[in-house]
Amino acid sequence: MNKLTINACPLCGGTHLKRVMTCTDFYASGEQFDLLSCEDCGFTFTQGVPVEAEIGRYYETPDYISHSDTKKGAMNTIYHQVRKYMLGKKARLVVKESHRKQGRLLDIGTGTGYFAEAMDQRGWEVEAIEKNAQARLFAKEHFGLDVKEEGALYEFEPGSFDVITLWHVMEHLEHLNEVWDKLYELLTNRGVLIVAVPNCSSYDALKYGEYWAAYDVPRHLWHFTPATIQQLASKHGFIMAARHPMPFDAFYVSMLSEKHRGSAFAFLKGMWTGTKGWFSALGKKERSSSMIYVFRKKR
Predict the structure, then answer these.
(1) CATH number among 3.40.50.10170, 3.40.50.150, 3.20.20.70, 3.40.50.720, domain 3-297
(2) What's this model's pTM, rounded to 2 decimal places?
(3) What is the per-residue pLDDT across 236-246, written as a single tens digit (0 to 9) for each?
(4) Per-residue CA distances from 222 to 100, 245, 260, 274 (Å)
């Protein structure tokens, strides 16, 4: 298997890299992967992940909910209930931040298509991209969505979209800088880029360390903080216009993290940590388990 070896930080180009921890793939393989951090800018990433063309088997598990849509178990049942609530919240956020009730939207990494379908129902012209064939088929069969393969990102004309969304997708993308350049090109001058990613400086990330479920190696290659994603955006011609916490993520991630630790009563312990994480984020939203960032092109 070909693996990706990163010798220079993709954010700042620095070569002073240190190992900060070793994490386990609890979903698919049981393999371990090192997390490295750049000593110059603090950006953290997973070393030695399978290259993009070969990582597919690490997603081929019924437990990987964004692709399988499984409702098995209490944690996944909760995930579905929260997602139903968050779909409406995300749709309202798009309208608020884009200053338009309808427009052209690209959803990258659409998974099984719930968000794309929600925006389509609200009258938006929606294009959706998804790497996983099973997830694309689900979106087609359940919502009638014509979800495109990942190569379609490079087939759209410049300035094609008023809004581009990546909901927990950016952390998966191997060609990070190339994708950000393409996003800049595809947006209209007044368009908005909305990115949701886990926050590895969050309350629950610091509590669980190597067991934090949102490290999700090797599927998650990049591990962002509010500071590093803002630096990445600036590098590619964007400014951060807003940021919003995703407090519900702390509950789901904490329950999974307790499960990874082999804790008894993982559900209850995760709920307790999620509650503490919720209150922590109320005081400082940059401690939220996941964050939504809104970017605009620099004028």
Answers:
(1) 3.40.50.150
(2) 0.93
(3) 999 999 999 99
(4) 31, 19, 20, 23
